[in-house]
Amino acid sequence: MLLESLIERAAQINTKTVAVAEAEDSEVIKAVIEASERNLARFILYGNQEKIKALLDTTKYDIKIVHTDSSASAAECAVKAVSSKEADVLMKGNLATNIILKAVLNKDFGLRTGNILSHTAVFEIPEIDRLLIVTDAAMNISPDLEQKRQIIENAVLIAQSIGIDHPKVAPIAAVETVNPLMQATLDAAALTMMNKRGQIDGCSIDGPLALDNAVSNLAAKHKGIHSEVAGNADILLVPTIEVGNVLYKSLVYFAKAKVAAVISGAKAPIVLTSRADSSESKLHSLALALCCATE
After folding, report:
1. CB 208 within 8 A of CB 176
2. Total Cβ atoms within 10 A of residue 239
3. Cα separation of 119 and 292, whole Å?
4. Tens digit of each residue's pLDDT (9 = 90 or more) over 95-149
5. Distances in Å between the alpha carbon of 209 and those of 81, 144, 167, 202, 225?
6. Three-state SS at 170
7. What does the radius of gyration of the chain's CA atoms come to, in whole angstroms?
8. Is cis: bond before 108, omega within 30 of 0?
9. Which residue in 261, 264, 267 sits closest to 282, CA to CA?
10. Nearest-CA neighbor of 285 among 272, 295, 294, 268?
């Protein structure tokens, strides 16, 4: 499965509504238009009505626009639409991440569930015939063991929503052996044992693994590592946000990978792409979120 297949899967559903906060952005509108033309979902756009109409031909597209006077108001209205079931997916438009997350975390109308919110990115990498998932590259700075458990569970649900029924999870470290001086290796070993004892289910976990022997059968074989996960990982759990951020951007800028990303762990999927992301990335992320919302 590649990212285009997520769009095809979302088009088959075609029953969901997306609330877009601060939609007056050309790349966001391009993604909304293409999603509408491909029958992925219905849309409610919150923001400056005049600016949105200037970017969107409202005579051609039957898309609801709700005027708001500020970014904070747009975020609040969009979150309330999802919380009240008027919409199924929340999408960030042209506003700062902290503004929309403040609305998401609001105790009165927000989307918290009690679980950790985490960022999950799905990559289509040239010359690799499967999707690769990286988590968490944008939300949790230095997660502890319990937070890592929840991050894995969030990622497993996303993997299952796109057809990876029993994903293989590799907790990444600098080495593939347990070192008491390296917390990432201790956490990886604990997560592996928790999986074996049924405390984390729906997946197979093996770690610690260095990046090379998590994704390369040749590297795993050369180092004498034999497991279901080594060389075949579907999900890479990074130890810190810095590792995830560098890996994410390295895949995009050096490997020319395509990416879809969502925030999971809330009552509904959240499309939280960067304002600098292309309309293609926003469309792929939207398709991923729609697949998750269906599950």
Report:
1. yes
2. 22
3. 13
4. 999 999 999 999 999 999 989 999 999 999 998 889 999 999 999 999 999 999 9
5. 42, 18, 16, 20, 9
6. strand
7. 19
8. no
9. 261
10. 272
Pair 262, 158: CB distance under 8 Å: yes
pTM greater than 0.90 (yes/no)? yes
Residue 73 tokens read as 């108001």
For residue 258, which of 277, 242, 236, 274 has the smallest C-alpha distance?
A: 277
Backbone angles phi, psi at 70, to 5 degrees: -155, 165
Tokens (6 digits) for 285:
């992320």
Q: Which residue has the higher pLDDT, 275 or 288?
A: 288
Contacts of 216 (CB under 8 A, 6+ apart): 231
Amino acid identity at 17? T
The two structure tokens encoding residue 181: 């001086």
pLDDT at 1 (0 to 100): 58
pLDDT digits (tens, 9 = 90+) for 228-248: 999 999 999 999 999 999 999
pLDDT tens digits for 198-233? Answer: 999 999 999 999 999 999 999 999 999 999 999 999
Q: Give the C-alpha separation, 193 to 198, whole Å.
A: 9
Tokens representing residue 166 in the block: 């029993």
What is the Cα–Cα distance from 223 to 82, expressed in whole angstroms? 48
CA-nearest of 15, 22, 86 to 273 is 22
**Inter-axis angle of helices 71-83 and 97-104, to 10 degrees?**
40
